[in-house]
């Protein structure tokens, strides 16, 4: 069974930085896109950033220029470097990966358990 485990969340002052990490483990043939989503209280889960297996990235407008997504395919891991954090970035951040677990199977989405990021003003 595939698991995604996130780390790196915490409490930081506005203007500070945090780096989130997510590692996938289990029987994995390959991983397609990986990404980070976030959900603040009372809001829907939203895409923050995504990266394809070839390294093409996509960002929400609200984080462009401040956040950087990267991945290490050899480690089945994805990272989110968050700089110039704002109070409105406060949310639970979830890792997502499209995972294939058998050679002839399809990719299916897998989620991490989430990590809290709190930015104080």
Kindly describe this structure.
- With 121 residues, the chain is an all-beta fold.
- The chain contains no helices and eleven strands.
- The strands form two sheets. Strands 2, 4, 5, 6, 9, 10 and 11 form a seven-stranded mixed beta sheet that branches. The chain has a four-stranded antiparallel beta sheet with strand order 1-3-8-7, with no helix packed on it.
- The radius of gyration is 14 Å and the shape is elongated.
- The N and C termini lie far apart (40 Å).
- The model has no long low-confidence stretch (mean pLDDT 97).
Overview in brief:
The chain is mostly beta strands and 121 residues long. It has strands spanning 3-7, 10-13, 18-25, 30-39, 46-51, 57-59, 67-72, 77-82, 91-100, 108-111, 115-120. Strands 2, 4, 5, 6, 9, 10 and 11 form a seven-stranded mixed β-sheet that branches.
Q: State the end-to-end CA separation.
A: 40 Å
Largest sheet: 7 strands, mixed
The geometry reads as: elongated
What pattern of helices and strands is seen along the backbone?
EEEEEEEEEEE
Overall pLDDT score: 97
Number of strands: 11
- Low-pLDDT segments: none
Instruction: Look at the helices and sheets and give the structural class.
Output: mainly beta
In DSSP terms (H or I, runs of 4 or more residues), the helix count works out at: 0
Strand content: over 45%
Radius of gyration: 14 Å
Question: Level of helix content?
Answer: under 10%
């Amino acid at each position: 069974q595939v698991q995604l485990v996130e780390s790196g969340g915490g409490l930081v002052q506005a203007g500070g930085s945090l780096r989130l990490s997510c590692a996938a483990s289990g029987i994995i043939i390959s991983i397609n896109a990986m990404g980070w989503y976030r959900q603040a209280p009372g809001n829907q889960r939203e895409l923050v950033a995504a990266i394809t297996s070839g390294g093409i990235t996509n960002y929400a407008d609200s984080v462009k220029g401040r956040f950087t997504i990267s991945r290490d395919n050899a480690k089945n891991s994805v990272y989110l470097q968050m700089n110039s954090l704002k109070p409105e970035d406060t949310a639970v951040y979830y890792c997502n990966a499209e995972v294939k677990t058998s050679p002839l199977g399809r990719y299916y989405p897998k989620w991490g358990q989430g990590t809290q990021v709190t930015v104080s003003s």
